[in-house]
Amino acid sequence: MIKKTTLIKNARIVNEGKITEGDILIEDDIIKEVSDSISAKSADVIIIDVEGNYVFPGAIDDQVHFREPGLTHKANIETESKAAIAGGITSFIEMPNTNPQTTTVEALEHKFNIASKTSSANYSFMFGGTNDNLDEILKVDPKSVAGLKLFLGSSTGNMLVDNPKVLEKIFSSTNMVISVHCEDEATIKKNLQEHIDQYGEDIPISKHPIIRSEDACYISSSKAIELAKKTGARLHVFHLSTGKETSLFSNKIPLKDKKITAEVCIHHLWFSDEDYEKKGTFIKWNPAVKTAKDRDQLWKALLDDRIDVIATDHAPHTLEEKRGIYTKAPSGGPLVQHAFVAMIEMFHRGKISLEKIAEKMCHNPSILFEVEKRGYIKPGYFADLVVIDINNPWSVNKENILYKCGWSPFEGTTFKSRITHTFVNGALAYNNFKIIDVKAGKRLTFNR
Which of 66, 162, 241, 443 could pair with 80 as two cysteines, CB 3.0-4.6 Å apart? Predict the structure, then answer.
């Protein structure tokens, strides 16, 4: 069988803490060679000259909600995976709070089946824990899924795991990475009732970070970490939103040796409570966007390696849903299409280096979840690649938004950089604002 060969010429390759100039040779879905200069061996080689633009490994987003099955009026795997590759995210890990919830092996396999037919990006799923599905958790093959997701606050359906004995049993019983949403439900309920007593149902959106407070986050995350230390569980804390929580994490050992890790999301690095006045419920997330001081402390912990990963928590809702009053508008927003360029914007502002972006969005998710042969640009790895022109401005508007929900918290924002090409398993899947519908995504595999 004739191999499909692609040669990427004149790249600035951002990989493993360095930027080097060179070429990348792809055979079928694998990177064959990375070198200063590679010549095409035959006329059949597809040559793509990227003219000195930057080439990153495809980003791995460890937390998305693509809403399928059951909530597909908001989004589905097909639409959101296309938005992801347009945003340079070539692999995603999707959450279990769909309908039905991914809390049985049968429901998990159903989602894998959907993705195998419709996903443009590489995919895996989290298995969901509840107060009463430990038997199902123990059936899951750790090599076949990204990990286990527990809601320790702000759950949907029956996914709030609030029984301490069950929680300890889960932590003690699985070798999978346990990823947690940490907000203390009792604290939030008390704060919410106080605000309803004062304002009724139409609470000012500016009160969101007071209702879903620093204390709510810290109480929950500190308990989860205490339990992980007690049981020896492998714990990953999703979407840190407070400066106070960053003190719970360490940079004393390499990521591959850490038992307790942390993630921060794009919105907590970009927005602050000063943005509620203009953006309203369109930046209503759980955990809440908090103060500029919190944001500064999150940046500090990201850059000094107490926080390990940048993700999106992509969670679309319809415009009609988001336009509701405070108590009706759901939390969450779409982010996969704009996350990478948002971080490149932070490079332009002097906040982070290109090498650090590659580390936090590409390399570290691969290390943390032990993803096989992805997250780096090196021979033998799958050819998931993103080409970025860092000096070619464009503005986010309704015409170029690819999310099924049709809106973005970045609408009206002009980014200095754009993604020109995205390769998924060696296939050119996106080129200059055009999706090439090759459905090249594969199921992620794990080195466990």
Answer: 66
Structure tokens at 151: 């809601």
Residues 394-406: tens digit of each pLDDT: 999 999 999 999 9
Q: Given the structure tokens 């055979």, which residue do they identify?
A: 27
Bridge partner residues of 122 (DSSP): 91
Which H or E run includes 62? Answer: strand 59-64
Asked if residue 135 is part of any domain, the answer here is: yes
* Whether the model pTM is above 0.85: yes
d(CA 269, CA 405): 23
Q: Is residue 381 part of a domain?
A: no
- Specify the CATH number for the domain of residue 172: 3.20.20.140
Asked if residue 100 is part of any domain, the answer here is yes
Number of domains in the chain: 1
Q: Among 29, 62, 313, 384, which one carries the catalytic annotation?
A: 313
Tokens of 187: 């604290």
- Is 132 one of the annotated active-site residues of the chain? no
Q: Which two tokens stand for residue 257?
A: 């040796």
Sort strands 418-424 and 427-431 into parallel, antiparallel or unpaired.
Answer: antiparallel
- Whether residue 375 lies inside any domain: the answer is no
Model pLDDT for residues 221-232, shown as the tens digit of each residue? 999 999 999 999
